[in-house]
Amino acid sequence: MKTSIAGNNLKKYCEKALLLGFTRAKPSVVTAPWVRLKCRFGCPGYGQSYCCPPNTPTPEETRRILDCYRSAILLQFEVPDSPDCKKLFRKAMKALVDVEGEIFKDGYYKAFAFISGPCSLCRECASISGNPCVFGYRARPSMESCGVDVFQTARGNGLSIRTLKNRTDTQNKYCLMLVD
Ligand code: SF4
């Protein structure tokens, strides 16, 4: 299922994201039931984080959430293999949540950011020990953890994404900012 959601009025935030190191900004989102299968089987992170399944919204819930929004920004972030890549990536994810705050303060009270990949704010997620989230203000789920088909979403917008053959390949990460 696909929802096309555009936003000329979001140019300012797209430009801001580009300055933060995201390489492109485009609108549109696809959800699919199969995505959670990849989390549930074959991922060691399943059930290990407040930002991973089964703690995150199902594809059906996400679809309903997406339908509450009139606008979104899809953000591409390239991560070349380098000693600093994890650090740079973590910094970009934090900056994205800051942008969410700015959008909120500009009056878009429903602003919400989906990051890429598992939450990496703590070395070990507090969910494992049954304690509350350590950075509840800043922790955000990824699109894929909420059932978004990131490959189809990216390709549907003419953006590049492919399965990687080696750990050293440049990664194409995607994030989503819902705005309304
Ligand atoms: S901020 Fe820490 S405790 Fe909260 S979801 Fe992320 S890793 Fe888990």
Topology:
Layout: E1 2-3, H1 11-19, E2 24-26, E3 29-30, H2 35-40, H3 59-66, E4 71-79, H4 85-105, E5 112-114, H5 150-156, E6 171-179
Antiparallel strand pairs: 1-3, 2-4, 4-6, 5-6
Could you characterize the architecture of this molecule?
The protein is of the alpha+beta class. It has one domain. It is built from 5 helices and 6 strands. Iron/sulfur cluster binds at residues 49-51, 119, 121-122, 125-127, 133-135, 139.
Please tally the β strands and state the result: 6
**Poorly predicted runs of 5 or more residues:** 1-8
Helix content percent band: 25-40%
Number of helices: 5
Specify the structural class: alpha+beta
Bound molecules: iron/sulfur cluster
Number of domain units: 1
Helix and strand pattern: EHEEHHEHEHE
Physical arrangement of strands within the biggest beta sheet: 2-4-6-5
Mean pLDDT score, rounded? 86
What is the radius of gyration? Answer: 15 Å
Taking the alpha carbons of the first and last residues, their distance comes to 21 Å
Task: Jot down its keywords.
180 residues; alpha+beta; four-stranded antiparallel β-sheet; two-stranded antiparallel ribbon; 5 helices; globular; disordered N terminus; binds iron/sulfur cluster
In short:
This protein is of the alpha+beta class. Helix content is 28%, strand content 16%. The strands form 2 sheets. The chain has a 4-stranded antiparallel beta sheet with strand order 2-4-6-5, with helices on one face. A two-stranded antiparallel sheet has the order 1-3.
